[in-house]
Design brief:
Blueprint (H helix, E strand, L loop, with lengths): L5 E8 L11 E5 L4 E6 L23 E4 L2 E5 L3 E6 L4 E6 L6 E7 L2 E6 L4 E5 L5 E6 L4 H7 L29 E7 L2 E9 L2 H19 L10 H4 L12 E9 L4 E10 L4 E6 L2 E6 L4 E6 L5 E6 L8 E5 L4 E6 L4 E6 L4 E7 L6 E9 L12
Antiparallel strand pairs: 1-2, 1-24, 2-3, 4-5, 5-6, 6-7, 8-9, 9-10, 10-11, 12-13, 13-14, 14-15, 16-17, 17-18, 18-19, 20-21, 21-22, 22-23
Length: about 375
C-alpha cells in the first residue's frame, strides 16, 4: 500500500445533554493528520428515556466495512452507506440493545448487543440469520459461575431501557466481534463476579417490584455525577474479562482470561498465534502470544485519564488505536512496542474514541457531513 489509509473513527461524548450530539463520525487523513469530515448521525430513538448521564444510549458505536459498503452503528440501529457516502439502508430490531462492535461480511453483519449479552447476525436487508446466547453454553457457565441466568424473551423490545428494569442483563458485556479462521472471536469485556451477580439478581427482584407499583426511575444529575464526567466507566471491582472463540458448530473455547479488572476491556484481533486486544483498565494495547502460554507484550497509549478503545490493523505489526483525554488515534508498532504517530481529533469536551475502521481506497472523497 502506498501511503497510509484513511480511517473512519466514531466517538462518544460523556455527559452530552439531550439537545446536543452525543457522538461523531470522522474521516481521518492519517498521513497528514487531518480531519476530512466530521458528522453526527441519527441518535438512538430511546435516548430521552436514558437515565445514564454518562454513556448509556449515547454515542456513535461500532464501524465496519465490506467491499463497497460501510456500516456505522448507534446503540440500536445500523446505518449502511455506499462508496459514494450515500445512506442506502437503516436496520434495527427489538433485540438490538446496546450495540457496541459490529462486523460486516459478505452475507451480513454481526452485531454485539451488550445490554442483553446477545450476538446477532442480520443479512443486508435486516433479517436475522443467526443469533447466539452465551447463557446456554455449559462450558462458559462453568467457567464464569453465573448460573440460572434467564434467557432472552423474544417478545420484548430490548432497545427500550424500561425493559431492563426487571431483567438481568449485561452480565458479560459482550462488546467486540471479529473473524477468526476457526469461527468468531468475541470480547467479554467485563464479566461480573459471583458476588456482583448475586447483587444483580437482587436488583432484578427490586426492579420488578418497583415496576409493578408504578415507581418511576429518577435521573441522577447531581454535582457528584457531573464531576465524574472524565471517569471511563462505572467501576465494578473484582470483575474479569475474556476473549472467547465461538466455533462454527457453536462450541466455545476461552483463549484468554483477564482477572481483577473494574472497567471493560475492548476489541480483539488475531494475527497468526497472537491475540491483540485493548486493556482499557491500564491504557495498554496487549499482544498475547498463545503459543507461549499467554505471554504478554504491552504498549502504553497516552491519555489522562486514558480509556483505550477502537482497534484497526494496517499490517502484521502496525495497528491504529483510540483513546481519550485528548481524543486521538495512535499508530502503534507492536513489534517494537512503540507509538509511531498521533492524530488528534480536535474533539469536544469529554469525547472518547469508540471505533476505528480502514476505508478502502475506492471510496469517494467524503461530503461535508453524512446524510
Amino acid at each position: 500500500m502506498i501511503g497510509k489509509p484513511r480511517l473512519i473513527v466514531t466517538s462518544i461524548i460523556r455527559y452530552a445533554g439531550q439537545e446536543h450530539a452525543s457522538g461523531f463520525v470522522r474521516l481521518l487523513d492519517i498521513e497528514n493528520k487531518r480531519v476530512l469530515m466530521k458528522s453526527s448521525v441519527p441518535e438512538c430513538v430511546f435516548r430521552s428515556k436514558d437515565l445514564n448521564p454518562r454513556g448509556g444510549l449515547r454515542g456513535v458505536r461500532g464501524v465496519s466495512v465490506h467491499e463497497d459498503r460501510l456500516v456505522i452503528a448507534n446503540t440500536e440501529r445500523l446505518l449502511i452507506y455506499d462508496s459514494k457516502w450515500m445512506l442506502t439502508e437503516e436496520i434495527t430490531h427489538p433485540l438490538m440493545s446496546g450495540i457496541h462492535d459490529i462486523l460486516a461480511e459478505e452475507d451480513g453483519i454481526w452485531v454485539t448487543c451488550t445490554m442483553n449479552d446477545l450476538l446477532l447476525k442480520v443479512d443486508w436487508t435486516g433479517k436475522i440469520i443467526a443469533d447466539w446466547e452465551w447463557r446456554y453454553d455449559n462450558n462458559l457457565i462453568a467457567e464464569f459461575g453465573l448460573r440460572n441466568l434467564p434467557g432472552i424473551n423474544r417478545d420484548l423490545d430490548y432497545r427500550n431501557p424500561e425493559t431492563h428494569r426487571d431483567g438481568l442483563f449485561n452480565t458479560v458485556h459482550l462488546n467486540s466481534v471479529n473473524r477468526d479462521p476457526e469461527g468468531i472471536l468475541l470480547s467479554f469485556g467485563r464479566i461480573l463476579s459471583r458476588i456482583e451477580y448475586r447483587k444483580a439478581k437482587t436488583g432484578r427482584i427490586l426492579g420488578k417490584i418497583a415496576k409493578s407499583l408504578g415507581i418511576k426511575r429518577r435521573r441522577n444529575v447531581g454535582t457528584k455525577q457531573r464531576i465524574k464526567a472524565s471517569i471511563p466507566d462505572c467501576k465494578i471491582e473484582g470483575s474479569s474479562s475474556a476473549i472467547v472463540l465461538l466455533r462454527e458448530d457453536n462450541r466455545t473455547e476461552i483463549l484468554k482470561r483477564i482477572k481483577d479488572i473494574s472497567i471493560p476491556n475492548h476489541n480483539v484481533i488475531k494475527v497468526e498465534n497472537s491475540l491483540i486486544y485493548n486493556d482499557s483498565n491500564n491504557s495498554n494495547v496487549v499482544v498475547t502470544e498463545l503459543n507461549r502460554r499467554g505471554y504478554d507484550r504491552k504498549v502504553k497509549i497516552p491519555g489522562k485519564p486514558g480509556f483505550v478503545r477502537g482497534l484497526a490493523q494496517l499490517d502484521k505489526h502496525t495497528f491504529f488505536v483510540g483513546n481519550q483525554k485528548p481524543a486521538a488515534v495512535y499508530e502503534v508498532d507492536l513489534n517494537t512496542s512503540q507509538v509511531l504517530s498521533t492524530c488528534p481529533l480536535d474533539g469536544e469536551p469529554n469525547e472518547s474514541v469508540y471505533g476505528i475502521c480502514i476505508i478502502p481506497a475506492e471510496f469517494n472523497d467524503p461530503p461535508t457531513s453524512l446524510s
